Amino acid sequence: MAPILQELAEEYKGRVIIKIIEVYDERELTRINRIRLIPTQIFFDGKNREVFRHEGFMAKEQIKKVFEKMGVHPVRK
Q1: Do residues 17 and 8 make contact, with C-beta atoms less than 8 angstroms apart?
Q2: Which of 16, 42, 46, 75 would bridge with 12, disulfide CB 3.0–4.6 Å?
Q3: Residue 61 to residue 76: CA distance in whole angstroms
Q4: Beta-carbon contacts of residue 12 (< 8 Å; ≥ 6 apart)
Q5: End-to-end alpha carbon distance in the chain
């Protein structure tokens, strides 16, 4: 997932914050976010409310569809 998330971070720079939680190093964040499976993708709105969660691999295009439903679009070049 890391390469996909890095690509998306660049494509959506300034529009989304992509945070990778290393579950073994960041146990408190893992607990707070109720991460039970690796990988887990959690999408938050601008008020830090969870709006979507997916457990397991998630393709880049699937993530982009969630962003679109949230009203977030890539940076135009």
Answers
A1: no
A2: 16
A3: 17
A4: 18, 67, 72, 74, 75
A5: 24
Return the structure tokens found at 43.
């999408």
CA 18 to chain centre: 5
Rounded distance, CA 28 to CA 24, Å? 10
Q: Structure tokens of 55?
A: 């457990």
Predicted confidence pLDDT, tens digits, the chain (77 residues) = 999 999 999 999 999 999 999 999 999 999 999 999 999 999 999 999 999 999 999 999 999 999 999 999 998 86
**Collapsed DSSP state (helix, strand, coil) of residue 47:** coil
Type of residue at 45: D
Which helix (H) or strand (E) element contains residue 50?
strand 50-55
Token pair, residue 49, equals: 């409310």
Tokens standing for residue 29:
């964040």
Q: In the structure encoding, which two tokens stand for residue 10, read together?
A: 């660049």
